Amino acid sequence: MLSLALVLATIFGSPKAPAPSPLHVACPANPAAFTTAPAARTCPAIELSGRVDANGVALDPAFDVDVAPAELARPGHGDAVVAGYAADGRALFAQSFSAAGSFHLYVPLSPALAQSVQRLELVSGDAKTDVVASSHREPEVESLSLDSGRYLIAWNAHEFPSVRVDPPQGAPILLSGGTSTYEERTVEDASRRIVVEFSDGVRSITRAIRIFGR
Question: pTM, whole model, 2 decimals?
């Protein structure tokens, strides 16, 4: 836990500029810069989810998102810390929080800083786990309409362990747990066009596609 203490001391202990007027507050670049709720309509963040309980900890692949400032995780203290690291091991951000079971956080993170994140780590007590960004090319996806209410979607789950399908109507659909280079899933949805978010474990890439055959 010594290394974690040093990370938190480095990130949270560095001098901070005086908080600007709320009318001119920009989106925070990282959790340590979150002082006053921004006036912006949306802010960039990294969407993190997982589990912290008596059996240990688990961290899901992350997604890049834009959310309302009110949805951003606030600076705080808790029994768990999720942190992001660059390829050279530098700590880029850390977010403390309390969890007893599943958690879901929108951690403020600028696109420029997010570009450097190569590993995510979750620590709670003596339990620790991490997710490392996979090596990948540009995402490719194939789709095929099976009938009016279902379609097949296929992608390289070895490069992108999780994908999220966002239909124009209805809630997003998370597809994860596959490892095949040609992972196939059937989705119950009547949409003709969808948005697919591909997560490499740490960051995500978004593509809009049309369902073939519709």
Answer: 0.83
